[in-house]
Design a protein that fits this description.
single chain, alpha+beta, 25% helix
């Protein structure tokens, strides 16, 4: 079983963009409390995306998306794609993102 988002072309359940945006807003609030900048990007016709920047080291930045994993569980993903955590576990997602985007000594 892979943690990658479902491949294009596979019949899949789709999450409503507003539900994805709500999950990303919850994650953004947690990350902002950890000294990260988190900006939700929404555009008609494209999935919502959260841009996360380490304020202590702005070169450490990445995007976070919401997608269904191979097991159809909705999760936060990095764009390369790598599963971060289920959308229901915001703390685990924030912990993982903080580790990935941490500056030396954090």
């Amino acid at each position: 079983m892979s943690d990658d988002p479902q491949p294009a072309g596979r019949a899949t359940v789709t999450i409503e963009p507003e539900k994805a945006a709500t999950a990303l807003r919850q994650l953004a609030a947690e990350l902002e409390g950890r000294r990260f900048s988190a900006r939700l990007r929404t555009k008609e016709g494209t999935p919502p995306c959260l841009t996360v920047i380490n304020l202590a080291a702005p070169a450490l930045a990445d995007s976070v998306l919401v997608a269904a994993g191979a097991d159809d569980e909705w999760c936060f993903f990095f764009p390369w794609p790598e599963r971060i955590a289920p959308v229901g576990d915001v703390m685990a997602a924030a912990d993982r993102i903080e580790r990935v985007l941490a500056e030396i000594g954090r």
